[in-house]
TrEMBL record, chains A, B:
InterPro entries: HTH_HxlR, WH-like_DNA-bd_sf, WH_DNA-bd_sf. This is Helix-turn-helix domain-containing protein. Residues 18-116 form the HTH hxlR-type domain. The keyword Iron does not apply. PROSITE patterns: HTH_HXLR. Signal peptide: none annotated. It comes from Phytohabitans maris. Keywords: DNA-binding, Transcription, Transcription regulation.
Amino acid sequence: MQEEAMEDLVADVFARACTSRPVLENVAGKWGILALAALSGDTYRFNALRRRVDGISEKMLAQTLQALERDGLVRRDVRATIPPRVEYSLTEVGKRIAAKLLELIELVEDAMPAVREAQSAYDGGR
Amino acid sequence: MQEEAMEDLVADVFARACTSRPVLENVAGKWGILALAALSGDTYRFNALRRRVDGISEKMLAQTLQALERDGLVRRDVRATIPPRVEYSLTEVGKRIAAKLLELIELVEDAMPAVREAQSAYDGGR
């Protein structure tokens, strides 16, 4: 990424009214990030996804999936079986963003020893 | 990234009690992501950073910076000038994570035409 292009970009998302901000929040928010990361590995039915994303409430998962579906990142397919089967998967755009989120998660995981050390120093020095 | 390594990783952050989860939330949360992205370009004093991250309250910026400082991603330097000058910058770990966040922001910006189209279709079809 060119330095100049980066400046333009950063200027955009920093603006309060920028339309990309709420999308970034859906994607990078506490539950959005985990739902997208889970769906990058597999297609899920609602309850299976809820078990995968440990700690999420039914209501919060429904809201998260709805926001991501509206943004065109998650696809909701209703299979005409008896009873009907609802499956969630990623769109092409969703896959690209989920792959980047996995890189971010990996980076944070790798940084955890340094982070824990910093936290101890910070808490000890107060 | 190997498929297997990815599985391990995902399994970790998905666990409710995983220590990396709150760090991921600090980093990828609404304000953390913008503060880190801003600091990846420059060192900032508090008020200048607040102007840069349009819409953030004083209290929320203070909390965001404190959490990121505790995680060892942001450094707070007090310069012994009169009056003292407090400057915020990224640590090495913070720089690596901020660079990844900029990649994510760029991806979301690039996806915005597709996202807007999906939003219109979703809202129109309801």
